[in-house]
Amino acid sequence: MAALVFALVGVPFLLVDASRPLAFLLGLVAAGLAIPAGVRVAAGRSGGRAVSIAGTALGSLVAVLAIAAYGSSGSIATAIGSSLGVTTPPGPGTAQLQYGDGTFLVGYDINPGVYHSAGPLRDRRPNCYWERSSADAGDVSSIIANDNSHGPVTITIMRSDRSFKSHGCLPWVRVR
User: Fold this and answer.
1) Contact 23, 66 (CB under 8 A)
2) How many CB atoms lie within 10 A of CB 133?
3) Among 81, 105, 108, 175, which is disulfide-ready with 86 (CB 3.0 to 4.6 Å)?
4) Residues 37-95: pLDDT tens digits?
5) Are 100 and 171 in contact (CB under 8 A)?
């Protein structure tokens, strides 16, 4: 019964992008709780076969849908880590990485430092939009600094920044 409750609680969280990590965790808990219940039912030590099956199925579905929702917008692990306030610095050799379009969590996807882009992708856009933000939700009030550059640009991503966003720019390369 607990598995079904956790799964049902997780369903509404699938509808809000920022709360999908919570839906994923609730789905995993529901599926995890349903397995021992299913074993008890199979062994004949407990009734409630339909409730056990429903909890397992719905819990698994919630977890899978939460993962699928992040298929194009980022990593579910990144989202869960950021919602819990956990950051893991990129591994060795990441200074050679180049960053294109996207939103990157500072300290997890991209290290603080000085980055340079040669400017906009002229064949696609006339300008290169970049943004440093104190949040990763895209709220205008969280923008620390941004610009629509028409030429080469160098920026400093601070350790205190939450995210860095780039659109229409040639790759960003860390220079310091």
Assistant:
1) yes
2) 22
3) 81
4) 666 666 666 666 676 666 666 666 666 565 555 544 445 455 555 544 444 445 555 44
5) yes
